[in-house]
Design a protein that fits this description.
By secondary structure, the protein is an alpha+beta fold. The chain is built from 18 helices and 16 strands.
């Protein structure tokens, strides 16, 4: 098959489609949060807006003292740990009906990307990226080989010396020609065209950017921007070194007849996420974490005014704005204004921040931390609450947590990608997979205390506490929800006494909370909040 002439130019090959441009913006917050405090500070006003009267110097001080309570990153690590506490394994072929080369796939499982990454390690990368970006991709690729087929169907390949040799399994092994996986993150995608053909959803084109380095002049390394465009019938590779335009450097026939790309999509889709774009799976948590970042910065901003109130004097003529004519003065903690008129005696007022405002700010922070601290538990628990034995029995067969659903999607993605590997090696099929979907919770008294408090306040249903206690091994697997609640129906039997014993052994630990918290948030010093009023002669000079 002849390779069709490229429809792209050096200008259009780099174009990002509108939906993927929107996806890049959609994933920016999560990626920045994962980068930690430094990344959030570097984002500056994108995530920590300037106050109307705040000058650059004051903003810089507030930005640098702001610290990130990174529950978003912690939750991703926690979920990855839950799923991959067991290795990804092939399903056993107990019936002996396998239509694949077991030895080949055993070898492939230990090195799926030609870099020595086994399937479980690769799975962690895919799962983590999917959590952050809403969708991520696996390209099942094969080395580019110049080959030809004779009239008898025999395949020959051209070696580095330009010789045509018969292609055999031994030749493939000697040259290291095996299919492999490439992880393509959402941020790399320029376009992915999903279309409906004869009632089937198919990928019509897939284009993405990758960066690599190669040796340049005088032994120095240079960066190369490479764009790969894949179609059902052919593929293209465009490159650009340092500056200049992208040029077409390679092209070839796609012998599979399909685009060998599969995707893991734990994120949700709406009318605003067409095709293969998606809302990040933990988008709600990311925005809660952003709210905490901003609220913590605001709370710290109160404290200098608590410790060093502004002294304001009646009888002073403030400087006026030369344009608007309005009286204006920049306020700062500890500011002292002196009237230069010796004939004026003014009333001095010392203003701090009232206790109620600081307390409300503190409570808002703690509420955000508390809500985020049980967010990962909500992903592990079965969806919805149940109040009757009948509902529980129905749910027992079909209940599925959000995390279990994501694991099933990951398994489907990997099994589809394995089928592409089978196609590359002329095998009828590949093995099925087992990905862990049983999640265990460590016993944590402070977590239960926090969760129990949220149940008491009506923030989460009692069923969530029941499931948490059961997963911690404190309630028998055979005990129903109805059997577990106490007579008043407001708590779960069996865990309160354990909490009390644990609290006696380690009171400090029981009071820390489920997750690391800003326990040193300033909250005391009521005497500093009080307004004081005195009459004094104004300082001169």
């Amino acid at each position: 098959m002849a390779v069709p002439q490229s429809a792209f130019t050096s200008r259009t090959i780099t174009a990002v489609s509108p939906e993927w441009m929107a996806q890049r913006e959609r994933i920016r917050l999560g990626r920045t949060l994962v980068g930690g405090t430094n990344a959030m500070q570097s984002a500056r006003e994108s995530y920590l807006p300037k106050r109307p009267s705040e000058d650059n110097d004051e903003y810089e001080k507030r930005l640098r003292r702001s610290k990130l309570f990174n529950k978003y990153k912690q939750t991703i690590h926690y979920l990855v740990g839950q799923v991959f506490q067991r290795q990804i394994k092939y399903q056993e072929d107990t019936a002996g009906k396998a239509k694949y080369d077991k030895a080949f796939f055993d070898s492939f499982q230990e090195n799926v990307d030609t870099r020595g990454t086994n399937m479980s390690m690769f799975g962690e990368l895919i799962f983590r990226a999917g959590m952050m970006d809403g969708v991520t991709f696996i390209l099942s690729d094969y080395p580019s080989i110049t080959q030809s087929t004779d009239e008898y169907g025999r395949t020959y390949y051209k070696n580095v010396d330009g010789e045509w040799l018969l292609r055999t399994a031994q030749a493939d092994a000697e040259n290291g020609w095996n299919p492999y996986w490439v992880h393509v993150e959402a941020s790399q995608v320029l376009d992915a065209w999903l279309d409906n053909v004869d009632g089937k959803t198919v990928l019509r084109s897939f284009r993405y950017l990758e960066k690599l380095q190669r040796e340049g002049a005088e032994g120095l390394r240079i960066q190369v921007d490479r764009i790969r465009a894949i179609f059902p019938d052919h593929w293209e590779v465009w490159e650009r070194e340092i500056e200049g335009e992208h040029v077409l450097v390679k092209y070839g026939v796609n012998s599979l007849g399909i685009i060998p790309v599969d995707w893991f999509m734990p994120g949700g889709q709406t009318e605003e996420t067409p095709g293969l774009t998606a809302i990040p799976a933990l988008d709600d948590l990311a925005h809660m974490n952003l709210a905490h970042w901003q609220a913590y910065s605001d709370h710290l901003g109160l404290m200098p005014y608590v410790r060093s109130p502004i002294r304001v004097f009646n009888g002073i003529e403030f400087p006026t704005d030369p344009i608007t004519g309005e009286a204006k003065v920049n306020a700062a903690p500890g500011m002292f204004l002196a009237n230069l008129n010796p004939d004026v005696t003014a009333t001095a007022m010392s203003y701090g921040v009232d206790p109620a405002s600081v307390d409300r700010s503190f409570q808002d922070l703690k509420a955000l931390e508390e809500y985020m601290s049980v967010y990962d538990l909500s992903l592990i628990m079965p969806r919805g609450g149940h109040s009757t034995a009948t509902q529980m029995q129905i749910a027992a067969a079909s209940a599925n947590s959000a995390l279990k659903g994501w694991v099933q999607r990951l398994q489907d993605c990997f099994e589809n990608a394995i089928k592409k590997i089978a196609l590359w090696t002329n095998q009828q099929d590949g093995p099925g997979l087992f990905v862990n979907d049983e999640f265990l919770l460590p016993y944590d008294s402070s977590a239960l205390q926090q969760l129990s408090g949220m149940v008491d306040r009506g923030q989460v249903p009692l069923f969530v506490l029941y499931e948490t206690v059961k997963k911690m091994g404190m309630v028998s697997e055979n005990m129903t929800f109805e059997d577990s609640v106490d007579e008043k129906g407001n708590t779960v039997k069996g865990y309160l006494s354990l909490l009390a014993d644990d609290a006696k052994r380690n009171t400090e630990k029981a009071n820390i909370g489920f997750t690391p918290s800003f326990g040193n948030i300033p909250h005391d010093g009521q005497s500093q909040y009080k307004q004081s009023q005195q009459t004094a002669p104004m300082a001169q000079g």
